[in-house]
Design a protein that fits this description.
167 residues; 8 strands; globular; 5 helices
């Protein structure tokens, strides 16, 4: 697990909410506190859709909502003249991106053992932090998956020119 404090808030917010920078993620959960508290469960409710849409894997390929689809909603809840009191986004790397990351690494990580690579983005009214985590399907003392994700996420921030201080 690694925690990074974002040093350029406006640039990060533009990357998060107004660009495709984080579109390789799924939204697990969002909590946005402005004039109300808005809670979003990112679980796709397939029963909402007509049968032909529900059964089309191309329309809803994941169990969680894609960040690119939820980003405009979250942006609309945050934008305005007043700064949000707080927010928290729990994002999961898409399974495709996770598999690609694992296959490009020179490790013996089994993709099936990793449930998700997670980043929690938290704003407390003054600063933004990003904290990585890994959800595994069982117990292990091996920290290879966590180390791989920590390094990959830090490289991701650097590649996207998002400035941060490690904590």
């Amino acid at each position: 697990m690694v925690t990074c404090r974002i040093t350029e808030l406006k640039k990060f917010m533009a990357s998060l909410l107004a660009s495709d920078c984080f579109d390789s993620f799924l939204l697990k959960e969002a909590s946005i506190v402005t004039y109300n508290a808005f809670l979003i469960d990112g679980q796709v409710r397939r029963e909402f859709y007509p049968k032909e849409e529900r059964d089309d894997p191309g329309l809803h390929p994941y169990e969680l909502s894609q960040w690119k689809d939820m980003r405009p909603l979250c942006f609309s809840l945050i934008k305005g003249t007043n700064t949000p009191l707080s927010f928290k986004f729990i994002l999961h790397l898409t399974p495709d991106a996770a598999e690609s990351m694992i296959s490009k690494s020179d490790t013996a990580i089994s993709p099936g053992f990793v449930r998700s690579f997670v980043v929690t983005i938290r704003y407390d009214g003054s600063s933004i932090t990003c904290t990585t985590g890994v959800s595994l399907s069982g117990f292990t003392l091996d920290k290879t998956a966590e180390t791989l994700w920590d390094k990959t996420f830090v490289r991701f921030l650097s590649k996207k020119e998002i400035r941060f201080d490690p904590m």
